[in-house]
Amino acid sequence: MAKLSSLDDLLVHELQDIYHAEGQILKALPKMTKAATHPQLKTAFEEHRVQTEGQVRRLEEVFKLLGLPAKGKKCEGMAGLIEEGKKVMEQDAEPAVLDAALIAAAQKVEHYEIASYGCVCTYAEMLGHDQVHELLGENLDEEETTDQRLTALAESVINPEAEEEGLESEEEEEASR
User: Which CATH number fits domain 7-171: 3.40.30.10, 1.20.1260.10, 3.50.50.60, 1.10.1740.10?
Assistant: First the structure.
């Protein structure tokens, strides 16, 4: 790994990390969409896939503005989060409980992205890369909005349904005794 000698070096390093992370997310989202059972969650994951494609395009524009090739370096953090999400999808779970678990996995991803974009936005601003800062800020805003939408969906629909499934399971268990 090349030495990180400056904030510019760190900006590029982090951009390569998030670029690779976004690519991993693009591969994972169709699987999450397929695993989701609630139509609103399926829609949310599909909308986020389309949004992520736009974020990748913005990152490619950022690399171009910096005079660099758009290439990623393996993002181990995202790989771990996606592996966790994959294990969630393999669980034997009631549909709404699985959906609640998928939202939790997706929000872990969102929080990683929010942290990453927050850092690169700050670096770009400090370094006077105004256009880069603006593009990265758009990605950050979208990630924050997606996180808020997932929270709203979880709180208003998915988690109450998961709770209801749990109560029904307990009642069935008691009735079979």
Answer: 1.20.1260.10
